[in-house]
Amino acid sequence: MKNYFIFFLIYFGSTAFGQGIINNGARIVFSGAAHIYIDGGTNGDYLSQAGGLVHPSATGNIWMEGDWTNNSANTGFFSDNGNVNLNGANQTINGTNSTTFNNLTLLGSGVKTQNLNTSVGGVVTTNGVLSVGNVIYDLNSFILTITNPLAAAVTSGTGYILSETNAAVNPSIMRWNMGTNVGAHVYPFGVAGLQIPFTFNKTTAGASNIDVSTRATGASDNLPWAGASNVGGVTFFYCPNNLMSGNPCATNSVIDRWWDITPTAAVTANCTFSYRGIENTLNVPYNTGNIGAQWWDGSAWNLNNATTGSAAAVVAGVGAVTANGLNQFCPYVLSSVTIPLPIELINFSASCEGDSKVVLNWSSATERNGAFFNVMNSTDGLHYTKIASVSAAGNSSSINNYSYVVENKKSFGNYYLLKMIDVDQSYKNSKSIYVSDDCNLQESEPTIFYNQQSGIVISTTSKDATSYTLNIIDAAGRLVRTESLPIKQGYNNIVVDTELASGVYLVNLFFNNGKLITKKIPVY
């Protein structure tokens, strides 16, 4: 037989006081504007276990000075009603099962910390609101999900949400289930006493959830992730004082802050990126020039940051840049418009004409100070020799198409790449492609993506039979799976049935020659 704690409304409403509540399988039912005050400072906790539930009314309130713990096998509430007010000092949200609050209001003093994935906004009606107020809400390496799709579902005063976790994949994520709603959704991030909000102004009506996390390295060196400058393959920060670019030295031209933005479906938005002036690590005079947004697609920096949105950089207080019409995401940085991170090719391919010719085709999305492309050839894929030069467009914000014909292919090796050289003699190499002697096989680097129905999918074309080593790492940096993948000669499409829990994972693919390809994969 179930136990019930019933609080009835008596005219102006009834009130119950308690110094901590242990709900051992009961259903706490509110009537009208009933209130529960769980006071007593750090002893003013709420613990639910053995299937306990709160059955609130639309205007019912729980006021707490202590911690919230849900050890029941439910989301904490019987229906999407009521308000929970955290009005103590330092408080935590805990439990063996995630809680879904309807309205959650942050009051009092100290930091509110979630120790597991938590949701706000309700389960079915999803019209609840998170009110951050003037306090700090620490994501603490977990996901906060806003289930209310409206832009008004999150409000804040001077307080903010803390997302600073410098890990291989930042697990401190604020997920907003926007559905088909459009409009300016403000993620009130902040750090060190300053609010640095990120705004995702959704302009297309397609249904999508939007995960966002942000962090600085804290060392003013803008290494992309903890531990190494090249983790994840994010390399080649342009160095304005170094003619031979190719090393990560973002202190010259990039703000020391990263944004990971991951939608669950195709979407277009106008995005506003905010940062602290202290994170402006650009060299003079770039530190007061215009900066704009660029994103890393796994092998290249993209977008012309001078035309997608730029603003003057600040060295104190809070600065912001709004970039319009974004439809590609994760991760983003803000870089100097004068000397942006290099924009890569959007295509490089080969085809055959008869038995003697190879036609190389490539395209660039935009160019800045481009001089020419050196066409490079190799017999072993390691040592390359220039066989031709093709002039570049120089400065362009439109797509440029190029081609070069290798007249006697049997006089050359099977590997080709492009060396893209700027007017200052800095350069960047493209990926290499392999053309077989019979022209039937072009080797390609693997592509990695996640399919909800099947799992992680790896597609590649190989000239030889070989094997890859697959490692999957979760948001906490734990290795959750490793295996050897046999690769046959020709085209391969490998499906890895992972049964991973929802979250963001880092997929590492190691080649026998030591080469590493890394891809961040959101799993829902």
Characterise this structure.
The chain has 524 residues and is mostly beta strands. The protein is 0% helix and 48% strand. The chain is built from no helices and 48 strands. The strands form 10 sheets. Strands 36, 37, 39, 40, 41, 42, 43 and 46 form an 8-stranded antiparallel beta sheet that branches. Strands 2-5-8-10-13-16-19 form a 7-stranded parallel beta sheet, with no helix packed on it. It has a 7-stranded parallel beta sheet with strand order 3-6-9-11-14-17-20, with no helix packed on it.
Q: Quick one: biggest sheet?
A: 8 strands, antiparallel
Amino- and carboxy-terminal Cα gap: 38 Å
Structural class: mainly beta
The radius of gyration is 27 Å
Low-confidence stretches: 1-13, 224-251
Instruction: Give the fraction of residues assigned to helices.
Output: under 10%
| Average pLDDT, all residues | 81
Relative strand content: over 45%
Shape: elongated
Question: How large is the count of helical segments?
Answer: 0
- Quantity of strands, as a count: 48
